[in-house]
Amino acid sequence: MNSTNNNCTNLSEPVSSAGMPDFSHSAKFPSPLWLGKPYYSLDSYCKNTFNEKLYKISLDAGFTCPNRDGTISHGGCIFCSEGGSGDFAERLTSPEQIRDALLAGRERLAQKQTGNKFIAYFQAYTGTYGPVEYLESVYRAALSVDFVAGISIATRPDCLPKEVLSLLQTLKCEFPEKFIWIELGLQTIHESTARFIRRGYPLSCFEQALENLDAIGIPVIVHLILGLPGETKEDMLASVTYLNNQKVAGVKLQLLHILKNTELAAYYQEHAAERISFQTRDEYLDMLITCIEHIRPDIVLHRITGDAPKKLLIAPLWSGNKRDVLNTLHAKMKQRSAYQGKQWKGNFHAGSFNTL
Ligand code: SF4
Q1: The pTM is what?
Q2: How many CA atoms lie within 13 A of 178 on its CB side?
Q3: pLDDT value of residue 17
Q4: What's the mean pLDDT in 338-345?
Q5: CA of 15 to the centre of ligand 1 (A)
């Protein structure tokens, strides 16, 4: 993923990608770029690229979602919380509040060992769903803040019309020293699961969005959920390996959380409490390690388990201890000599992916 890849071209002109870490000539993995971890974490990527860890400041810029406002459905995805999957985000009511919200977010992180720069993360609901003038004002406000290294926008692939792509391209050219990332909530490649969770778009829509974003040089981070109802381990692995052949710069792997006041909570209460996919931490970690071993080694892993607000989490409760989950993951990977891409059988096509 490369913040210097600025494709300031007309939307109709194809652009080539550049700046991907050159893993193709690496003698072996784990790569030194991973800074001692058995996978390419976002922390390592940021330290390699910006010489410091970049913390995210989550924003809720007052968007809604077509899957909740009735355009596609009223209920939303069945796992989505009332906060629009942005329960840690700072709620804003006008673009003028962006700077203050970012300052407040930085202040909250003061007890951590942060660097000087941060990522403004448009996390809640659908971050490209709104009048283009409003989108422009909030993105521009965030990009204009001196301590913001770049913005990351969580959205749906069916909410990236040409006007939004044009806006992203314009801002990319206007702020060449900053990055713009798009995060797409794919969750699964399986259409039957997608219908069950009421995702509201087909896989072909996701693929078109990837093409469109690649054409303007915007790196894409894809969200996948492990443990969706009815999915086998083979189904989950198929979603993970599918991404290896897509123009994807980063992946977020999220354990399915069952949160209060969601349809998923009602479903499990009524039908299937005993069928929660990962009853134990170790069961999840075994699956997670298999997934990591199959992921292309240059894809940056932005997340490998996920956080849920404790007051909302119904299950699995073991996931509330994130530190324990990560420590055990690292110990198990070491024990098994596991690392990202160990089971990946593909070839690098250097320059064929937009990188962060
Ligand atoms: S697309 Fe995102 S915000 Fe909309 S309902 Fe689904 S998870 Fe929630």
Answers
A1: 0.91
A2: 27
A3: 36
A4: 94
A5: 31
Pocket residue to mutate for ligand 1, from 68, 78, 199, most atoms within 8 A of Cβ: 68
Q: Burial level of 160, CB count in 10 A (0-12/13-18/19+)?
A: buried
For helices 162-174 and 132-143, angle between their N-to-C axes, nearest 10 degrees? 20
Structure tokens at 100: 């203050």
Domain boundaries, given as residue ranges, for the chain: 32-335
How far is ligand 1, taken at its centre, from the CA of residue 313, in Å? Answer: 17
Strands 313-315 and 258-259: antiparallel
Confidence of residue 275 (pLDDT cuts 50, 70, 90): low
- Determine the distance separating the centroid of ligand 1 and the alpha carbon of 314, expressed in angstroms: 19
Pocket test for ligand 1, best of 60, 63, 64, 65 (most atoms within 8 A of CB): 65
Question: Ligand 1: which residues within 6 Å by Cβ?
Answer: 65, 67-68, 76-77, 80, 84-85, 125-126, 156, 185
Tokens of 276: 């929660």
> What is the rounded CA–CA span in Å between residue 317 and residue 310?
9
199 neighbors 164 (Cβ within 8 angstroms): no
- Tokens representing 355 are 């990188």
User: Cα(5) to centroid of ligand 1, in Å?
Assistant: 30
Q: Does domain 32-335 have CATH number 3.20.20.70?
A: yes
- For residue 248, give both structure tokens: 């994807």
